[in-house]
Amino acid sequence: MAVEVRVTSTLRNLVGEKMVQGHGATVGELLEDLDARYPGFRAQISGKDGQLHRFVNVYLNDEDIRYLQALDTPVKPGDVASILPALAGGGLPALAGGAR
Amino acid sequence: MLSLERRYVDEVIAHAREDAPNECCGIIAGRDGRPTQLYRAVNAEASPYRYNVDPKDLLRIYRDLDNHGWDVLAIYHSHTHTEAYPSPTDVSLAAWPEAYYLIVSLADEAKPVLRAFRIQDGRVTEHELQVVDDAGAHLDAAR
Ligand SMILES: [Zn+2]
Known about the structure:
Chain A is an alpha+beta fold. Chain A has helices at residues 9-15, 27-37, 41-45; strands at residues 2-6, 19-23, 56-60, 63-64, 80-85, 88-90. Chain A has one domain: Roll (Ubiquitin-like (UB roll)). Chain A contains three helices and six strands; from the N terminus they run βαβααββββ. Chain A starts with a strand and ends in a 10-residue tail after the last strand. Chain B has a single domain, classed as Cytidine Deaminase, domain 2. The A-B interface holds A 6, 8-10, 18, 55-57, 59, 62, 64, 66, 82, 84-95, 98-100 and B 23, 25, 27, 41, 44-45, 47-53, 55-56, 58-59, 62, 66, 72, 75, 77, 79, 81-82, 86-90, 93-98. Strand 6 of chain A pairs antiparallel with strand 4 (50-52) of chain B, so a sheet runs across the interface. Zinc ion (ZN) binds next to strand 5 of chain B.
């Protein structure tokens, strides 16, 4: 099924649009589908282990998927997924594990 | 060059002072390079050394500016004890190459310093920050 995925910044440049249709039954499948059509998509938001970067926020409708079932969160027609890179930084050389 | 009306500069400094000793953060939306609205954001870290716009607040702000047809013109945060220059962590986490990064330093409490940068592929470039009055007339540099 098709779900609208809204992207910004670097992903928007990669896709060429502010929103794109993704196909799949879960958020993870949507992202795989987009990566197949836009090579490099996944690399922008997740590491080699397939886990999302800590400083990338993925939402399904109004909810951060960290508080749902993460990449296994099921999607249905009419849902809107949004991907927003974190706005983050810090004065220490490395974040000491405190970021959510 | 980033050109901001005085009221935006005043608001960034006021926000930094209110949230001190923690770092503050927020977004200035814009259209065609001109600022349209400042959004204060919640720093989920609530820390003097780190900022991370609360993800829920980030979605709220982004939706609102996107619904208006605006872009993220600038992302601001404060340094309460260090100079107004991106830290290594600021650089490594910078994920908005098309936005200005505005940093306000409160190291000298009486004289806040505001500077503008772009951070692209790990490279920091400083951009002139011009402060104008509400009619658009050039006032002075912010630093
Ligand atoms: Zn910083």
